[in-house]
Fold:
Amino acid sequence: MRRALYALLLLAVSPLVAAASQAMAQPEESLKLVSEHPVDGMSAGNLSGFAWCGDALWAVSDRDDGRIYRLSGGEGVWQAEPELFTAPPAPDSGLPWGIRMRAWATGLVRGGSLDFEGMTCDSNGNRYLVSEAKVAVLQLPVAADPEWLRLPESLVRQARGSGMLLHFNALLEGIAIDPAGERMWLAAERQRRGLLVLHKKNSVWGCTGGCVLLSESGKVPAPEKLGGKPQPKDFSDVSYYAEKLFTLERQAHRICRRTLSNGEVERCWSFADQVLTDARRYPSTFGRVEALQIDEQGAWLGVDNGGLVRADGESRPIVWRFAAPKDGWEHGK
Structure:
């Protein structure tokens, strides 16, 4: 009986192990940097997330509770044009009192009590902002007042039961939605990092078969130019494109393509060589890239410099445009 059970277990896990080994064995192709755009007009700085909505790239700052920014410009410096809104009181997320109080105190000191860390849009033009401090999602409809989505009560409970959302300032860091606005993914930052998935049915958001898509711990070595010291695995954003999820892995300086079914990694691409040049270095051993948007032609990456000044003297938030891999984002399935 034991041998039979062992054999069944091997049959179940072998495809997963083989797929993971294949993804790890593939060398990471380095993406090519096409352009760089310092951003003027973000009064509080800290570009923490963005999304392509309609005909423009829109950004959010974790220091601003009542505005998003339309980014415009050609080559060189871009301008951020603010759009103002007023968020209603956030719902109770079910986080422990200690984490909620630390978030509240931090917001008083640095600004941005809602701590917006990610942004996404659906094909109807609705914008969605994820609040790390509140573990909540604010919707900015096209022709209506802002409103917080009614997320399932089990979301935080399941995430914490899987080891996520346990530490202050290590909560939700990214958000993505499909064009129809019916599937949503949230990225938990670190210790443990993970992906949560929700589905909308009859205007109600819920978890079909569980909220947790992926939960994992461990460390990853930072690039040698940042010292090479192992850092906790993290997600700093997530983007949906062509029925795949793309995660921004800040400490590893890479973008990874993952399956929708279980978040399993399929392939990764590095941007370390292009952004860790001597001129672009910040006085920090941590990655600064916090925003991701994938499209057919390439990737937009956004830098939250956190008030730090680069070696070349640049102190503004940065947007980078990278070309898509030479064989496209879907190559190597």
Notes: The first strand starts at residue 29 and ends at 30. Confidence is low (pLDDT under 50) at residues 1-25.
